[in-house]
Design a protein that fits this description.
Two copies of one chain form a homodimer.
Chain A (H helix, E strand, L loop, with lengths): L2 H17 L2 H10 L4 E2 H8 L3 H13 L3 E6 L2 E6 L4 H12 L3
Antiparallel strand pairs in A: 1-3, 2-3
Chain B binds a DNA duplex (30 and 30 nucleotides) through α4.
DNA sequence: TATCTATTTGGCTAATTTGCCAAGTAATAA
DNA sequence: TTATTACTTGGCAAATTAGCCAAATAGATA
């Protein structure tokens, strides 16, 4: 595996890593319904707000979500509509056993 | 997030985790070309055979690949044709920056 | 049987990730 | 200006993951 190829797969894996956590997957699904502020996500997930904030940062860095501040609230939305088709694929793998 | 929902997202994340490594992504792509034995994969990737074997185990446990032993060789193939469409999605995210 | 070849497994250390708490920042309200 | 609300960041301990070497296993061949 040469350097160029290695770089490409590293980049892909970074995006996938940003999805590879139950809480983050839940958030992605939750955002499919429309943008939400951090406190709404916290309310749904039920973990510390700092934990949610870090999960959101991970996904933002990977380009999976976008954010915008309005007033006191930070609103997050998904950046990529193709993600839901990804879940369809995942379910079909998951249902094998 | 109740227990039932948590379980569903945990399961999804386990599949995604099994993809979340550059070497494993490369292997998935390599297998798209048809089944390969472990030593062919080792040759392409260039890391220790024990490392490759463990990566393959991770993917097998997640249901991403299947294996069959013939003679001395263990042949691996992808278990899910939808994975390549997943990569198309990843590329579109990756090309944003 | 003994040996060779292909692969897996055990064991270890190093690196990364997670989630909490506490402290910091930014926008609004009093 | 001070306080409040919403969120982010720093720091830390616990858990998980990665990759190497060495040892074990399974099948083929001499």
């Amino acid at each position: 595996m040469n350097n160029e190829i290695q770089k490409r797969y590293k980049k892909r894996s970074e995006i996938i890593k940003a999805l590879a956590h139950p809480t983050r997957l839940f958030i992605i699904d939750f955002l499919a319904d429309g943008e939400k502020c951090v406190c709404e996500i916290v309310e749904q997930v039920g973990v510390d707000i700092s934990t949610i904030s870090k999960h959101l940062l991970v996904m933002k860095n990977a380009g999976l979500v976008e954010s915008e501040k309005r007033g006191l609230n930070m609103f997050y939305k998904t950046a990529c509509p193709c993600i839901s088709s990804l879940f369809t694929c995942l379910e079909s793998i998951g249902n094998k056993d």
